[in-house]
């Protein structure tokens, strides 16, 4: 799936603020997350990394071998092998959980950032929203264009290394389910 620049701008806006229910796709996908850290800190970490990645997708040419990494939080750069810095404990635990759940190697920071290249057809999702339940669980909502199976390991890497104990999904969900969570009705 190609991500047009205007679509990336809209996605970037949704990372910063909850989108209105009007104009939402009929079906979303959801990842259920059990954070091992404070849910608000967790959500902030995920949003911060995605904001930088989407800014790069909007502004960079992706023709060089290396993308700029200014703005990438130190914890994410460290867990993604871009620095010699010590890996934060929440990221180390998340990395271990990712390896146990996905059975894949760690993501290199540049490799991860290149997933956001607008011409890259392998990123099968776009950020939609994040909600939190009363029990501290977090739900990450994405638009996968109605597909229940899509490439999303780069998102799982972020979700785990931001401090998740468990990430399940993606699951298809009707948009009214998301709307109900944000309105409490």
Strand percentage: 15-25%
Question: In what order do the strands lie side by side in the largest sheet?
Answer: 2-3-1-4
Radius of gyration: 16 Å
pLDDT below 50 for ≥5 consecutive residues: which ranges?
none
- Mean pLDDT value: 94
Number of domains: 1
Structural class: alpha+beta
Brief summary:
The protein is an alpha+beta fold and 185 residues long. A hairpin with a 5-residue loop joins β2 and β3.
Please give a structural write-up.
With 185 residues, the protein is α+β, with helices and mostly antiparallel strands. It has one domain. It has 7 helices and 4 strands. The chain has helices spanning 5-16, 39-59, 74-79, 89-102, 109-114, 153-161, 175-183, and strands at residues 27-35, 126-132, 138-143, 164-174. The protein has a 4-stranded antiparallel beta sheet. Helix 1 runs antiparallel to helix 2 (39-59) and helix 4 packs antiparallel against helix 6 (153-161). It is globular. The model has no long low-confidence stretch (mean pLDDT 94).
Task: Detail the topology: elements first, then pairings.
Layout: H1 5-16, E1 27-35, H2 39-59, H3 74-79, H4 89-102, H5 109-114, E2 126-132, E3 138-143, H6 153-161, E4 164-174, H7 175-183
Antiparallel strand pairs: 1-3, 1-4, 2-3
Helix pairs in contact: 1-2, 4-6
